[in-house]
Design brief:
heterodimer; A: about 260 residues; Rossmann fold; ten-stranded mixed β-sheet; about 35% helix; B: about 270 residues; MetI-like fold; about 85% helix
Chain lengths: ~260, ~270
Amino acid sequence: MNKSSDIVLEVKDLGVSFEDQEAIGKIDLSVARGEFIAILGPSGCGKSTLLNVLSGLLPPTRGTVSVEGRRMYGPESEAPHVGYVFQEHRLLPWRSVKKNLELVLAASSVPRQLWDDKINDILEILHISRYKDSWPLRLSGGERQRVSIARALLVEPSYVMMDEPFSTLDELTARTLRQEIIDIWQRTGVTIVFVTHSIREATFLADRIIILTRGPANVDDSYSVPIDRPRDYEEPRIGQVEAEIVKRVLGVWELEKT
Amino acid sequence: MPNRMNDDGMDGEAVVGGIDSTVERRSLFNKMGGTMVAFASLLVVWIILSIIVRPWVPTPVDTVIAMYRALGSAEFYQDLLLTLWRVLSAFAGATVVGSVLGILVGLSRRADAFFRPLLAIGLAVPDPVYIIFAILALGIGEQAGFVALTIAITPFVTNIVRSSVQARDLTLDEMVQVYRIPFWEAFWANLVPQLIPALLTAVRNSFALSWKLVVVVEALGQPEGLGAAIFQSFRLLRMREMLALAILFTILMELIERGALGRLERRFLRWRA
């Protein structure tokens, strides 16, 4: 079991506006250590803005974000160590896979003498050891995204954010990677905040689904997925829960009118 | 095992490889053919001009003889070395100053607002104006040439680098920010490699401009160097010698540009798929 009672991430009364445009209305959220949560919302509701706030890129207009009990964006505060798997890989194409990983390790608290072992281990887990010295542009989309996942996990993050990381991959590769993410999460106990607009993906992966309203985003519901692990992407129970969530969000996302 | 043989009993990949190499050979042949036709056309025009504008345009044969004589004289090598030194120092100065300024202007809105009109003026001023003012201000010496050339070439380099900095991939900037990569580490690992294609273009332009302007500087205000020798030949109406020196110098500069800069390009861009 990955869950424990201590809170890694706590968001209170969060609001974000750009000039007179409100991107996030009000979000309250807490994520326990080792939890896998999915943030589900329609396109353009402010999911990426929320991730930018949680990753230290964008100070909120209102509210607080605390990581491991420490406030982000305060005058004395230091940005937390987080991992981020973007929609696109965002690897530096002029650095080999190993050099890309070393770059983030250099900025982390991982001692240098452990780098080689950690890199070898994570590449082994993600089945990409043979590409250690390859240029990223010589890899397939799935392999690049595996390197991106390796990078996020290597820095010993407080939590890993994933922003629709499989949306650009073909269905078979995406399915394989979803299963591998679950395996890695169970093996390492890392906390994951996974953003998606796919209800089935959220149901398959997460312990809990935070359902956002249409933009500006507010939390509509925190839904605990009532399915034991291991789960199968095609199992009927996932389909049932998916249908239940679809029913819920139709009204919230105002899709019934259209 | 899937059968990869085609109807002729040949391996499929071997056929593809064969087609690739045929296409490559054809492309090389077209390229070489085009170059040969261009040089032949130039030669024909030269011969016609040498007949029509006689004696001011020397014949190709006379010019080749003059080139051979120049290559046998010690004076040519002294002038060449001096000119090369001037080209390289102006080129290095303009590239370094222009690149640093380009990065600064590209990264800072304030610097951009300040330098943009100055760069526009710098690019619009005819190069001989810089040279004349530098000679008037600093006298006939090494300094004047170096300063004039650096001022003349720097805006070109700055402009190319600035555009590239502003067109960089901002999603990579976000990535280095999320992973808390320190500024200088991010500068060398993320920003500079993105600028390499633009820097190589800037280096090429800077080099090409440097050697052309050095000849003008030497012709206008230096007693020694290939530019001065070309101008001296012009004053004495020795057109064969003038053309011979110009051609020899041009060939050497092209060799340096294609050899050294081409190698740099292959080295720095080898990660491209």
